[in-house]
Automatic annotation (TrEMBL):
<dbReference type="InterPro" id="IPR014447">
    <property type="entry name" value="VapB-like_prob"/>
</dbReference>
<dbReference type="Pfam" id="PF23719">
    <property type="entry name" value="VapB"/>
</dbReference>
<protein>
    <submittedName>
        <fullName>Type II toxin-antitoxin system VapB family antitoxin</fullName>
    </submittedName>
</protein>
Length: 98
């Protein structure tokens, strides 16, 4: 299993962080098997695109809530890491109080 769970939606409260605010959070290493996805559908064009991170943050966005880590943005990057036989990736982790 690549992820802890494949979810569909965000169970945590809205945080309203802008891209600039996400950029203030330093990336840290996260295990893929500890992540719960917030998307159940994958777009293969995005996964296989060479420039998929050109316009976005280089690091996935993860929300820690009630002891769980939710992959909010960066599913394609996480899967690409798994395809390269990596068990961890660097992500920006926002800790929300639950």
């Amino acid at each position: 299993m690549i992820f802890k769970l494949v979810g569909n939606g965000r169970p945590y409260p809205e945080h309203s962080l802008s891209n600039r605010e996400w950029a203030q959070i330093p990336p840290r290493q996260v295990r893929l098997d500890s992540l719960i996805t917030t998307k159940a559908v994958l777009d293969l064009h995005s996964l296989l695109a060479r420039d998929s991170t050109f316009y976005g943050d280089l690091f996935p966005h993860v929300v820690q809530w009630n002891g769980d880590l939710y992959l909010e943005d960066g599913l394609h990057r996480a899967l690409r890491a798994a395809l390269h036989q990596r068990s961890t990736l660097h992500a920006r982790v926002l800790e929300l109080e639950g």
